[in-house]
C-alpha cells in the first residue's frame, strides 16, 4: 500500500482543470437532484454523483489511454474537458450508475481495453488478488453438441487441490450433460451454473474411436454430485514433479496464478528442481490468468539465472506519468532477501489455452523470448499486455483514508508492458509453436506422460526436432467457467 501511495502522491491534480492556461478550481457542490443513492455499511446514503466523481478523477489521473479518451482531460480537447463546475456536475449526473460512467471512459473496449474493471465491493477484489475466492473448486469448458446446436455439455478441465470438488472426488475430464436435472442449453447454462449451489448430472462420452465429432455420443449415466461454493484460498502451485525421460530429468510445474504470497513456495519448487538437476522444464500456464508483474520476473529469474541485472520487462505509463516508467530486472534475490533458486536453462516449454492463459503468463513468455528458446504448446493466448493498479476513493487514490460511505474501487489499465526488445504481446495473443487444442475426450490427468500437451513436449525432447502429430477435431467451444473478470489481471504490487 505504501508503494501505491507513493505512486499516487504527485499524480493527483484532479481538482484543477485547465483552460487557456487558467486554473478553474472545482468546488464540489451537491445538486438538488441525484440520479440515485447507494447504501453504505452504516445505512447512510451516498449520492451516485459522488461516486461518479471518484470514477472520473481516478481515471483522469492514471488511465493508460487518457490521451485518446474523449471525456478525460487531454490535448484533443485543449487539455480541459469541462470549462465550468456546472458542466462537470451535469456530466456526472448524466450517468445513472458508476459502472455506466466507467464503461463510457474506456478506449475501444471491444478491441484495445478489454480488461479495465470496476467493482462495487473492493473486498472481493482484494481477496481475489490474495488468491481467495468463493468457489466450488472446478473449472470447465462448455461445448455445443454440434455446430449451430443450442444443446450444450460441460467438461471439467481443472479440479483445485483440497477444494469442495476435490474432496468430493471430482476429476478432470468428467462430462456433465445436465444441471439440477435440466438438460443444458445455450439459453439456461448461465443461470444454472452461476448459482452458489447446483447438482451436476454426469454423462459418458463416446467418440466411437474416431477423430471426427459428428459420430460422438454423450449419454447421461445416472451419476450426479452436488457442489456448493465456499471461501477458498488457492496455492497457485497446482502440481510440481520430476519426470525421468532416459537421461533427461524434466521438471513439470502446473502454475495457476502469479500470486506474490506464494513467491517463497515457488522458489522452494525450484530449489528441488535445482537439487534434482533437471535438464528440461515445462511450465503449464494453460489455466493461469495472470497476477503480479514482479512475481513473473521472479519466475523468469528462476527459469534462467544467467541474466541477473538485465531487463526482464518494461512498463510504461500514460504521457502524464512518464516518470513512473520502470524496468523489471532479472534478479537473484526475492524482496525479503532470500536467494532465488535458478536452474540456468536456455530453453523452456510453456503450455497454453485460449480461454485462460493471459496477462502475466503472456508477459513471462514474451519477456523470456529475447533470451532463451520458449517453445509454446497449446493454443493462442488471450492477448493482454497491460498492467493495472487498484484505485480507491481517497485523496491519493490509495486505501489509506478511503471514503467509508461506499466500497467501489477500480482496476484500470495504467501501464503497458514490453520485453527488452520493446515488443508487446499482440492483441490477438501469442501463437503457439505447436498448436494443439484440448478436447472433451482427451482431458487426461495433468502431469501424466499421456496427457496430450505434455506428451508433445516429451516427444519433442526425445526427437530433438520439430514433430508432426495428428490433430484431434474438436466440438464447437461455447465458453467456460463464469469466472471473475479480475482473474485475468496483471497488476503492479
What keywords describe this structure?
alpha+beta; 6-stranded mixed β-sheet; globular; 21% helix; 7-stranded antiparallel β-sheet; 11 helices; 493 residues
Task: Explain how this protein is built.
- With 493 residues, the chain is of the alpha+beta class.
- It has helices spanning 2-8, 48-62, 85-93, 98-105, 122-129, 164-167, 189-193, 263-276, 293-303, 360-368, 452-463; strands at residues 16-19, 22-25, 37-39, 45-47, 117-119, 132-135, 138-144, 152-159, 175-179, 182-183, 197-206, 217-228, 230-233, 237-245, 248-255, 280-284, 291-292, 311-317, 326-329, 347-352, 373-378, 386-388, 391-392, 409-411, 413-418, 434-435, 477-480, 490-491.
- Strands 7, 8, 9, 10, 11, 12 and 27 form a seven-stranded antiparallel beta sheet that branches. It has a six-stranded mixed beta sheet with strand order 14-15-16-20-21-26, with helices on both faces.
- The termini are close together.
- The model is unreliable at 1-35, 465-473 and 482-486 (pLDDT under 50).
Which oligomerization state do the chains in this entry correspond to?
Answer: single chain
Low-pLDDT runs:
1-35, 465-473, 482-486
Give the count of helical stretches: 11
Q: pLDDT average, as an integer?
A: 86
Roughly what percent helix? Answer: 10-25%
What is the number of E strands? Answer: 28
For the sheet with most strands, the description reads:
7 strands, antiparallel
Class by helix and strand content?
alpha+beta
Distance between the termini: 8 Å
What is the global morphology? globular
Taken as a percent bin, the fraction of beta residues is 25-35%
C-alpha-based Rg, rounded:
24 Å
Amino acid at each position: 500500500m505504501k508503494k501505491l501511495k507513493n505512486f499516487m502522491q504527485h499524480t493527483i491534480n484532479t481538482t484543477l482543470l485547465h483552460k487557456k492556461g487558467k486554473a478553474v478550481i472545482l468546488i464540489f457542490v451537491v445538486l438538488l437532484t441525484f440520479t440515485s443513492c447507494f447504501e453504505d455499511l452504516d445505512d447512510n446514503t451516498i449520492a451516485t454523483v459522488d461516486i461518479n466523481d471518484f470514477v472520473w478523477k481516478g481515471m483522469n489521473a492514471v488511465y493508460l489511454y487518457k490521451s485518446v479518451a474523449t471525456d478525460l482531460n487531454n490535448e484533443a480537447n485543449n487539455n480541459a474537458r469541462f470549462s465550468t463546475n456546472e458542466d462537470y456536475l451535469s456530466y456526472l449526473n448524466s450517468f445513472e450508475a458508476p459502472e455506466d460512467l466507467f464503461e463510457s471512459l474506456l478506449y475501444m473496449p471491444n478491441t484495445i481495453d478489454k480488461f479495465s474493471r470496476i467493482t462495487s465491493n473492493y473486498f472481493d477484489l482484494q481477496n481475489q488478488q490474495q488468491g481467495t475466492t468463493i468457489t466450488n473448486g472446478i473449472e470447465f469448458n462448455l461445448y455445443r453438441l454440434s455446430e449451430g446446436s443450442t444443446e450444450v455439455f460441460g467438461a471439467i478441465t481443472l479440479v483445485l487441490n483440497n477444494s469442495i470438488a476435490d474432496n468430493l472426488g471430482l476429476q478432470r475430464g468428467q462430462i456433465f450433460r445436465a444441471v439440477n436435472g435440466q438438460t443444458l442449453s445455450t439459453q439456461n447454462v448461465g443461470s444454472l451454473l452461476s448459482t452458489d449451489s447446483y447438482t451436476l448430472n454426469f454423462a459418458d462420452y463416446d467418440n466411437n474411436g474416431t477423430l471426427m465429432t459428428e459420430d460422438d455420443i454423450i449419454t447421461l449415466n445416472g451419476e450426479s454430485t452436488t457442489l456448493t461454493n465456499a471461501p477458498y484460498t488457492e496455492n497457485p502451485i497446482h502440481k510440481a514433479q520430476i519426470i525421468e525421460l532416459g537421461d533427461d530429468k524434466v521438471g513439470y510445474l502446473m502454475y495457476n496464478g502469479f500470486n506474490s504470497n506464494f513467491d517463497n513456495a515457488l522458489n522452494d519448487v525450484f530449489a528441488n528442481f535445482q537439487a534434482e538437476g533437471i535438464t528440461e522444464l515445462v511450465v503449464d500456464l494453460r489455466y493461469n490468468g495472470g497476477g503480479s508483474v514482479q512475481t513473473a520476473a521472479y519466475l523468469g529469474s528462476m527459469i534462467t539465472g544467467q541474466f541477473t541485472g538485465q531487463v526482464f520487462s518494461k512498463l510504461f505509463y500514460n504521457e502524464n506519468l512518464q516518470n513512473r516508467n520502470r524496468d523489471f530486472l532479472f534478479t537473484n534475490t526475492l524482496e525479503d532477501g532470500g536467494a532465488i533458486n535458478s536452474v540456468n536453462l536456455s530453453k523452456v516449454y510453456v503450455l497454453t489455452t485460449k480461454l485462460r492463459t493471459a496477462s502475466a503468463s503472456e508477459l513471462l513468455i514474451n519477456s523470456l523470448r529475447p533470451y532463451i528458446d520458449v517453445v509454446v504448446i497449446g493454443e493462442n493466448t488471450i492477448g493482454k499486455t497491460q498492467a493495472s493498479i487498484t484505485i480507491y476513493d481517497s485523496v491519493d487514490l490509495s486505501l489509506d483514508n478511503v471514503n467509508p460511505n461506499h466500497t467501489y474501487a477500480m482496476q484500470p489499465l495504467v501501464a503497458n508492458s514490453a520485453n527488452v526488445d520493446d515488443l508487446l504481446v499482440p492483441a490477438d495473443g501469442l501463437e503457439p509453436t505447436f498448436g494443439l487444442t484440448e478436447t472433451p475426450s482427451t482431458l487426461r490427468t495433468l502431469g501424466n506422460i499421456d496427457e496430450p500437451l505434455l506428451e508433445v513436449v516429451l516427444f519433442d525432447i526425445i526427437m530433438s526436432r520439430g514433430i508432426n502429430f495428428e490433430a484431434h477435431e474438436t466440438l464447437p467451444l461455447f465458453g467456460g467457467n463464469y469466472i471473475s473478470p479480475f482473474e485475468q489481471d496483471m497488476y503492479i504490487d
